[in-house]
Design brief:
By secondary structure, this protein is an alpha+beta fold. It contains 3 helices and 7 strands, in the order αββββββααβ. It has helices at residues 18-26, 98-110, 118-128, and strands spanning 29-33, 40-43, 45-47, 50-55, 70-76, 82-93, 131-137. The chain has a 7-stranded antiparallel β-sheet with strand order 2-1-5-6-7-4-3.
């Protein structure tokens, strides 16, 4: 066995839990909050344990995301409710790089109602200055039932029972002789 087997210079800074990993795999929409702003619903594409998001001219608006270093990401479950909120490291993928060449066509292929072929869409993103960002898990997810401060949601109101339950309806009574 080689001495350097299994040792690399690259450091995987990705911090994730099984819940985050599973939620990321199934994500199509993520609520992303940047710098204390309210979270926005953004379509995304899961790739290698991270989420890729495109924003800019002709695409979805995500003010401040391309310039941010970190964000809060909230994902929902099959039931439609929030299942996990986690801090993410934001990395912008620059056009012309090896990473752009590998990732941009993947994201463009997943875009619904794309105006034209995938290659044209990727070229337009690069020419118009659209931002392709990678959201990588960078910390422990929020614990408990507490919503993030940017959720703008209030807890459910108590719902007292208004009427008593009734006895089941019976069609007829069977008499035995």
């Amino acid at each position: 066995m080689r001495e350097d087997a299994g040792v690399t210079d690259e450091v995987d800074e990705r911090v994730a839990t099984p819940l985050v990993d599973e939620a990321v795999k199934k994500a199509a929409v993520a609520w992303v909050g940047v710098a204390g702003e309210p979270s926005r619903a953004l379509w995304c594409v899961p790739v290698e344990g991270s989420l890729l998001v495109v924003s800019g001219p002709g695409e979805q608006p995500a003010p401040g995301l391309a310039e941010a270093a970190e964000a809060q990401v909230t994902l929902r479950g099959d039931h439609g409710g929030r299942i996990v909120t986690w801090p993410a490291r934001v990395t912008r993928v620059a056009p012309g790089t090896e990473e752009w060449t590998a990732l941009a066509p993947t994201v463009a292929g997943k875009r619904l109602n794309a105006p034209g072929p995938t290659a044209d869409l990727v070229r337009r993103w690069a020419a118009d200055g659209c931002a392709l960002v990678r959201l990588t898990p960078a910390g422990e997810p929020a614990t408990g039932d507490r919503l993030p401060d940017s959720a703008l949601a209030e807890p459910p109101r108590p719902a007292p029972v208004v009427r008593a339950t009734r006895r089941p309806f019976r069609l007829h009574r069977v008499r035995r002789r």
